[in-house]
Amino acid sequence: MGASRRAESLGTLTPRERDVLAMMAEGRSNNAIAKALFLSSGSVEKHVTQIFTKLGLSPSESDHRRVLAVLRYLQA
């Protein structure tokens, strides 16, 4: 995927989803993200799921979606 396409897919994220993804890139757990953003753990899980969906990261036995999402964020 090219740089413009990666940036384009990140552009579909809401500001809160971008906040969550940025904290994922810092290596934070869902619980740590929830505490920092004053959200429930369930809300963070929903944001993470939406991030995966919007970035086209389907469940896979051979890939780690969280790492792939962070890499896409860092490369954009």
Q: Report the C-alpha radius of gyration, rounded.
A: 12 Å
Uncertain runs: none
User: Which outline best applies?
Assistant: globular
Structural class: mainly alpha
Described by strand count, sense and barrel closure, the largest sheet is: none
Proportion in β-strands:
under 5%
Characterization of the model:
The protein has 76 residues and is mostly helical. Helix content is 68%, strand content 0%. It contains 5 helices and no strands. Helix 2 packs across helix 4, helix 2 packs across helix 5 and helix 3 crosses helix 4. The longest helix is centred in the middle third of the chain and has 14 residues. The model has no long low-confidence stretch (mean pLDDT 92).
Briefly say what this structure is.
This protein is mainly alpha-helical.
List keywords for this structure.
76 residues, 5 helices, globular, mainly alpha
Secondary-structure map with pairings?
Elements: H1 3-10, H2 15-25, H3 30-37, H4 41-54, H5 65-75
